[in-house]
## 1
Amino acid sequence: MTVSESLKPHNRWPSYVLLAVMILLLLMTIGALLYTFSSNASPAANTAMQGGPQVQVSTTSGFISFAPAGSAVDASKASTGFILYPGAFVDATAYALFASAIAASGYPVFVTPMPLDLAVMNPNAAQVVIDTHPEITNWVIGGHSLGGAMAGQFVAAHPDQISGLVLFGAYPNADLSGWNGIATSVYGTNDGIATSAQVQAAANILPAGTTFVPIEGGNHAQFGDYGAQGGDNPATISAAEQLAQAAQATLNVLNQVNAGNQG
């Protein structure tokens, strides 16, 4: 090497510097995507996270619990629980009002926050809930949008652990036609993300006795409480009415599962 070559500046960064820059760019990209697409819970949902006389709310590292309290406590329902997977890019707390409505009817409810707010990143999130609550022996799982698809995937992988499935503006990505649990598919007729036609077209991969529950005038976003969603259609009913109908459809499944395991 000549003297002139030894005096040239080094124009190649060390590999660890390049790796650090790539990781930083990746994190910035993920952060930008989350900022762009993520939907936060409404003030009403945040208030519901505080609990009340009939619902006690607690948060662990794996899930949010909505436990019946006060006059809502019903020993005959204590062994049946409901697990909910959030929709894509939706904060789990956006389902606090819905979860509270179910818990106020006597059933314990568990909402599972997802990595990057994507259920596809942790489709087995329900297992932590089930393992943590051995006193609950009858499980119903549900999910909104992508969360519904992943809830269906959990059922397909653990058919003997789950007795009921409720889909909200969703359809499974696994064949559940041979599963013998109770299934209900709830959809809004104004849903622009999971249309009525798409939801009904999934009938052949759901159990033969699946109940389809249309919510007239309901849309996609009002299955949660996080505001409008791009690509969706406006709802022609209130968010409160859509929540009430979705909650009743869920309670119908929980009541069937619970009644079938009494005795």
## 2
Amino acid sequence: MVDDNGNGLTLKLLIDRLPVQKRKMIFALLASAAFLFVVACLAGGVAYVGKSFLPISRIDVTEILNMERADILARAGIENQTYWMINKTRVKTNLLAIAAIKGAVVEKRFPDTLLITLDARKPAAMVLSFAGGVGVLQYVDETGKVFEKGKNVPPNMRLPIITDSNMQNPYAGAQFHSSVTDLLKTMSGISPALLSHISEIEINWKITGEYRLDLFDLIVYPRSSSIRVRMNAELDDAYISRMLLAVKTVERDYNTDEIDYRADDPVFIPKGGSR
């Protein structure tokens, strides 16, 4: 549409040429549309921000050994909390109070997401405890922390059992003495294939109440033999390999009860013999 001079008509000129009543109606419609647009924008913004005042709708959490997601969240203390209510430091403190958790990172992402990354303790051995007269196996990591019942031990995880008369009925969260921790750290560096040949390592204290690495030795029980072996606490792959070879040489000799391998050469002790 063009004007008398052949120029295109603008929307404003078109509206100006309309009767007064129609112009008022158009302006009213435009004003209503603008108002509705503003209201819609505000409602969307309020709804977006308002989500942060509702309970968290998304929680991403790494799972750890023998613990269900629901149990982790309950122990973290974040049930029915809104985005603004959640205190990351408090949540992390609650998580680190769980014996099976070594480290935790807690992140909030606006408006309704919580990210929990957990560093689970890794088993270096198992320890035997008793509950109601029933033996229960629990995991212990290389720091000496007893952290979880071993109710679901993977079939390929053939960890040795640590027994210590000074660690009576260890519970989740119990801590072995630092000298035993040194032993566990040493064990963490030993080939898993070699450790799989050992069923139990008994810590034999030489002097009651004295907890030094040089004041205990080990009584080791190979899986394939009833012969026990006394060894020094400074274990390594070569030492264990020599011990297993010594056991193999006499495993069919049913008269041998024990091997003392605390010196360079093993001493084979017959049943009923002196130690």
## 3
Amino acid sequence: MINDITAVKKQYENSNNLNTRISVHDKYSTNKIGFGRWIVSNYKIEPGMKILELGCGTGSMWKGQDLIVNSCYIILSDFSEGMVKSAKENLVGYEKIRYEVIDIQKIPYDNKTFDIVIANMMLYHVPDLNKALAEVRRVLRDNGTFYCTAYGENGIIKYLSKLLSPYGLYDNQNKNFTLQNGDKIFSRYFERIRKLEYEDSLAVTNADDIIDYIYSLSDMTELSAGSREEIREILLKNMTNGVLNIPKEYGMFVSQ
């Protein structure tokens, strides 16, 4: 499991690894709504709201959300300076968005500052999750909403690690926070919690794209043996009619 903050910094020092994974999801996801659009569709945002996103990554989900961006006060933040830089570059022209480097364990804002706090696909990285959630709860206004997406324990990495275990691919994903345990964790800090599940899978036709995906997770998985050619051969053998079907498990917690 990844608990070492140095490894997290290395994984997200720039957007290259993240962009590799995003491209695989964009190219092969069977749910054509798209995870990013689904996430935004669940936000209940009204004009004038103050919004803080923690772990914004490349900020790509805010592209095209002109109505929201122009009518709200939005801060996009990330623990990684490299990610904040990528978000700025990706969202050129959105002058009302502010960008900051913020550690979720020590949010530099007063109590009850924000109507909405967002943390997508990042809580499992946090060394002190209780401290982080206490901070989120502190900066949320009364009746504010915390939107948080997470992966489940039965998705892509579990499937690939079973398939490629002879070549040393092990499921070392951090399971400190998942769809399976998130509601129990959140119940310590929030009164109302809803879990929304996003139905999806990957239908992959090019094995090399999945190999690139695996190597982009080098700090989250362990691949100790086997060449690309050997791994490609295993993937090809598990294709049906030229398609490798890989399960995905993602969802969102909406907490108030």
